[in-house]
Structure formats: structure tokens, C-alpha cells
Design goal:
two-stranded parallel ribbon; 7 helices; globular
């Protein structure tokens, strides 16, 4: 599978290109960035889109998941920092294959158990009944995150129209296939990734 490393400048260029692709097809009432990487992408895309839509609103959401502790994160980052990129690339591809295999084990019970969302701001915005929503993430693997948020919004208002935009799709058949994307079957190392070693690393 192809692997691309984006520095901060490359990321901004890709986000602006994604915004251009979106704006050619449709306008939206609300843009939602999924933390953490999707919020970085979402902010840039929203800034580009609002130039043509003064009433466009933006918010960010996150799924509450068990994360690694501070010490564990620090250790992982330290190890990845000293490894050369060719080894990191192999690790990335292995992780992608493993993720593809695990996707087959995703059940509705698994998805239901992951619906602990931090979405107070979103609840307030949905009360205004936006007609068209654009959900943005950095990448889609299994599509689980998009699916959970999609179901949450539809449980509040089934008439809301939702579309999705990402920089890249890494798997052939995610649970939700984004409407707008720049790359397919491509892994991307973003400036906030643990294994990104550039000096312009983005902290999320």
C-alpha cells in the first residue's frame, strides 16, 4: 500500500484541495471535525468553505475511548523517534493489514459500546435543525468512528442529510464510505502522528 508523509505545508495544501472538492458539489449548514486529527483538517476546510457561506457553523466532537497513559505514550514516542522511516513504514503497513483483519470482527454490540460521545456543543447546534452536515476526519480505516457519530446524529433527527470528507481512505470497504476524499488505499503520516519526525510536528 502506498504511504505518504505530509508536512505541515503539505497538510494545509491537501486540506484546501479537499475544501475545493467539497465546494464544487455542495454547500452545508454545519461542519463537524472529529478530534483529534479530523479537527485539524476540519478547521482548515471550514475556514476555506466559510468564505463562500457566511452562515456556516463549525464544531468538534470526540469519542471517549480508553487511551494510553502518559508514561506509555511517552515511551512509544521515544522509541518511534529513533527508528528510521523505512522501519516505521513497515510498521505502518503491518498495522493497516491487522486493522483490515480486525474490521471483520466489528459487531453492532462493539459499536453500541463505543457511543460515549462528548457532543454537548453538537446537541445545541442540532437543536437549530441544520439541513446538511459535513463530517470531517483525517483518515478512514474501518469507518467505525464515522458510523458511531452518524448513528448518534440520526437518532436525534433522521431527516438531517450527512456527508463525509477525509484526506484518505485506507481500507477497501469501510462501514461508511466518505463522499469526498483525496486519496484511496493510501496510508498517510500526518504532522501529529506519533511516528512523524519533522520539526513542524503538530501537537493535538
Amino acid at each position: 500500500m502506498k504511504l505518504i508523509t505530509l508536512n505541515k505545508k503539505g497538510l494545509e495544501s491537501n486540506c484546501k484541495e479537499l475544501a475545493s472538492v467539497v465546494s464544487k458539489h455542495k454547500s452545508f449548514d454545519l461542519v463537524i471535525g472529529i478530534k483529534t486529527g479530523g479537527a485539524v483538517v476540519g478547521n482548515i476546510v471550514y475556514t476555506e468553505l466559510k468564505n463562500n457561506h457566511n452562515n456556516l457553523k463549525y464544531t468538534e466532537v470526540s469519542l471517549s475511548r480508553k487511551s494510553k497513559g502518559f508514561k506509555e505514550k511517552t515511551l512509544i514516542k521515544s522509541i518511534l523517534k529513533i527508528l528510521p522511516y523505512f522501519i516505521l513504514n513497515l510498521m505502518r503497513r503491518f498495522e493497516s493489514v491487522l486493522s483490515t483483519l480486525l474490521k471483520r470482527r466489528i459487531s453492532m454490540e462493539t459499536l453500541d459500546g463505543d457511543k460515549n460521545l462528548k457532543m454537548k456543543k453538537l446537541d445545541q447546534l442540532l437543536s437549530g435543525k441544520p439541513r446538511d452536515i459535513l463530517i470531517i476526519d483525517d483518515a478512514v480505516d474501518s469507518g467505525k468512528t464515522l458510523f458511531v457519530i452518524d448513528q448518534y446524529i440520526k437518532s436525534i433527527n433522521s431527516k438531517i442529510k450527512i456527508e463525509y470528507a477525509v484526506i484518505t481512505i485506507t481500507q477497501k470497504s469501510p462501514l461508511i464510505l466518505p463522499d469526498y476524499y483525496l486519496y484511496k488505499n493510501t496510508l498517510i503520516r500526518f504532522p501529529w502522528s506519533y511516528d512523524y519526525k519533522g520539526k513542524d510536528k503538530i501537537q493535538t
